[in-house]
Design goal:
The complex is a heterodimer of chains A (about 425) and B (about 270). By secondary structure, chain A is an alpha+beta fold. In chain A, the strands form two sheets. In chain A, strands 1, 2, 3, 4, 5, 6, 7, 8, 9 and 10 form a ten-stranded antiparallel β-sheet that branches. In chain A, strands 11-12-13-14 form a four-stranded antiparallel β-sheet, with no helix packed on it. In chain A, α1 runs antiparallel to α4 and α4 runs antiparallel to α5. Chain B has about 270 residues and is mainly α. Chain B has two domains: about 110 residues, Muramoyl-pentapeptide Carboxypeptidase, domain 1 (Orthogonal Bundle), CATH 1.10.101; about 120 residues, Arc Repressor Mutant, subunit A. Helix content of chain B is about 50%, strand content about 5%. Chain B is built from twelve helices and five strands. A three-stranded antiparallel β-sheet of chain B has the order 3-5-4. In chain B, strands 1-2 form a two-stranded antiparallel sheet. The chains are: A alpha+beta (about 425), B mainly alpha (about 270). At the A-B interface, α2, α3, α5, α7 and β6 of A face α4, α11 and β4 of B.
């Protein structure tokens, strides 16, 4: 009797534990399935939204091509811009694991063209505009027709796969679309690095930049097919790694000495003086300081080059100063420099005309003649208005082209 | 002889004290303003006082927070213009003396804008104290202000990615990861915002394994600041991978740009 009871109890316990384990496993399986279905829905949604937005973009491009009334033309261009942007966002949600296709690049160009035509009041009759619209239309039709079968094939898009597992399939499909719809781009070449034949001048120059001896220096010439060649000097200074890059012309491109910084002892204004003198020492003399910040005992100063007394807004370099002893520990140059002389501005608008283009809620505190880049990357003379936005009293900068009066940028000042 | 030396020393001390009194600020100023010059970006009690005095004169209308920002800069310029000083926007000794003379009735208790309470002034003083140790851009483990066109939220997200992906890498390698995110932001093939880039499916491992939710350290935040300020050790790389951890043939086929730490950066 007692043995029987023991066996019955053990069996009941096994059934109870097994049942609980089964219930838990079933619950977990259901949860995992629900999660997978949700992810699947997200990916399917992205693909199907892309198809819908491409279809709307196709209609907007057709409408813009077929109407010459300026108001309607502008309205359709606004639609083109809107749907091209939406389609780009949809494409970004597709799990392709890193795009080597250029679908988004094409959509971006269409978006950019539409914005440019709106800003410049492009003539709907213009042959170049019509040609660009026709090409954009053909591209979008191809994209839509190739994406549609992927988005609407029977069964779930993910089909039990993870996003990572799915990525190669999606990427291949998009690559096929690109092959038929988008002109092929040249494959990027590999960057190569080799030892410099005579490293001594580079090491000497690097030590001049660092202001101290560089131990165990390594000098390599890096050939970058996209950015040109540069010389990289690495080593250590006072036991801490240092890295300095020079353009092939010999100009300093970047410098960083990675050392810990102690308690701030040097004042920001004094550090600014150190930074200016250091810039002169490395051969960058005609610069103006435009911004400064300090975090954790490190000050960073922004400098802009000055062309015939006019600062170039869209070109800047940064100098990093350690506030524990006022040593320059970093320099970064964005590699963008303005022309040596001011670009011509034959019929500049008056200050009054330019101010008339500012909204009533913008209260100007300061205006400054500057050089800036237009949307095509061309340097133009401009006026920067710094002031506050009435609604929030926040500082903003509005930059207008001095010749056309077109807005070049609006930036919240930080 | 010794007496003569003592007398000369005493006279020298008296003379030095008199000269110091002549060249120093008036009494009210010496109680507060220090000798340091103030420029855009300066922080601390000197800026507090500067803002308070400019506010008393009606030139400054922002918060008295001890941070020399744009509003303080414009107020200084207007003050300098109206008082016949060189308009630089920087506060040197001459500007301080003129400011002290123009605000003889100022005292530190006035340091709050109209409508604000005394306690808010105390709060702003705390902010100013924090600013001395880096509180202008970072407070605690968070960015509180944006840089250029990136918001504080963007910078925080980037710091999380840098910490999740590259903690333990050399500082330069951490900057490189942040630079890759920024390079993607400027490449039309990628999404147009930092969150969309970070959360693009399969783009970053730390998003998949949840390490993005770890709190970044100061080094990761400094790396983000350096990348946003223009340091790109990768020269435009769009991808990176750890060759010891990836078997993805596609990423390995991308043209390599540079190797930093354990990561290979590619375009």
């Amino acid at each position: 009797m007692r043995t029987w009871t023991w066996w019955a109890g053990a069996a009941a316990a096994v059934i109870a534990v097994g049942g609980a384990a089964f219930a838990w496993g079933d619950h977990e399986r259901n949860r995992a399935q629900a999660m997978a279905a949700m992810v699947d829905a997200g990916y399917s949604g992205a693909l199907r939204s892309a198809v819908t937005d491409l279809d709307s973009l196709r209609s907007a491009l057709a409408s813009a091509s077929m109407i010459a009334d300026p108001d309607s033309f502008r309205r359709h261009l606004a639609d083109v811009e809107k749907y091209a942007y939406a389609a780009q966002l949809d494409m970004a949600r597709i799990p392709d694991g890193g795009p080597d296709h250029r679908v988004n690049q094409e959509l971006h160009q269409i978006d950019l063209d539409a914005a440019h035509w709106m800003v410049t009041d492009a003539d709907p009759h213009s042959a170049s505009v019509q040609d660009a619209l026709r090409r954009a239309y053909q591209t979008v039709v191809q994209l839509e027709e190739h994406l549609q079968p992927i988005a609407w094939h029977s069964g779930p898009v993910v089909d039990g796969k993870t996003g990572t597992e799915l990525a190669p399939a999606v990427r291949n499909a998009l690559a096929r679309i690109q092959a038929s719809a988008v002109p092929r781009s040249r494959a990027a070449s590999r960057t190569t690095a080799s030892a410099v034949k005579d490293p001594t001048p580079w090491v000497r120059r690097a030590e001049q930049v660092a202001g101290q001896r560089i131990d165990k220096p390594t000098v390599r010439e890096v050939r970058d097919p996209r950015n040109g060649s540069y010389v990289l000097v690495t080593g250590s200074a006072a036991g801490r790694p240092v890295r300095i890059e020079f353009a092939s012309t010999g100009a300093l491109a970047s410098y960083r000495w990675a050392r810990p910084t102690g308690k701030a002892q040097v004042d920001l204004a004094d550090a600014a003086g150190v930074a200016s003198r250091w810039l002169q020492r490395v051969g960058l003399s005609n610069m103006v300081r435009t911004h400064a910040s300090q975090v954790d005992g490190i000050a960073r100063f922004t400098y802009q080059p000055v062309v015939q007394g006019v600062p170039a807004l869209d070109a800047s370099c940064k100098v990093v100063v350690a506030l524990d002893n006022g040593q320059v520990i970093g320099f970064y140059d964005r590699g963008k420099w303005p022309p040596k002389s001011l670009p011509p501005a034959l019929h500049p608008l008056s200050e009054r005309d330019l101010r008339a283009r500012l909204g009533p809620q913008f209260h100007v505190q300061e205006e400054q003649h500057v050089l800036a880049e237009d949307p095509n990357g061309k340097w133009v003379q401009a006026v920067a208005f710094d002031g506050t936005f009435g609604g929030s009293d926040e500082p903003y900068r509005v930059v207008l082209d001095v010749t056309t009066g077109h807005e070049l940028s609006i930036e919240r000042l930080t | 002889m010794i007496k003569a030396k003592r007398a000369i020393s005493a006279w020298a001390l008296v003379l030095a004290a008199w000269m110091a009194a002549e060249v120093s600020l008036p009494t009210a100023a010496t109680q507060a303003f220090t000798a340091r010059n103030l420029i855009y970006g300066s922080t601390g009690y000197d800026v507090d006082e500067l803002q308070g005095r400019l506010h008393l004169l009606g030139y400054y209308w922002g918060r008295i927070d001890g941070i020399f920002g744009w509003k303080t800069y414009w107020a200084v310029r207007t003050f300098q213009y109206n008082f016949g000083l060189p308009v630089t926007g920087e506060v040197d000794m001459r500007t301080k003396i003129m400011l002290v003379k123009a605000t003889p009735n100022w005292n530190p208790k006035m340091d709050f804008p109209a409508g604000a309470s005394g306690s808010s002034s105390a709060n702003s003083r705390q902010t100013a104290t924090a600013s001395d140790t880096g509180g202008t851009l970072i407070s605690g483990d968070r960015f509180t202000h944006g840089i250029d066109n990136l918001s504080a939220s963007d910078l925080n997200l980037m710091a999380h990615v840098v910490y999740g992906e590259a903690r333990g890498e050399p500082f330069e390698g951490q900057v490189a990861v942040a630079a890759v995110i920024l390079n993607r932001l400027h490449d039309p093939r990628f999404p147009k915002s930092i969150p969309a880039i970070v959360y693009q499916p399969g783009a970053f491992d730390c998003v998949n394994d949840g390490q993005i939710n770890l709190h970044p350290n100061r080094e990761a935040m400094q790396a983000v600041i350096d990348a946003v300020n223009g340091w790109d050790p990768t020269h435009g790389a769009l991808y990176y991978f750890n060759p010891a951890k990836t078997s993805n043939a596609w990423i390995r086929a991308q043209p390599e740009v540079v190797t930093i730490g354990h990561h290979i950066f590619a375009i």
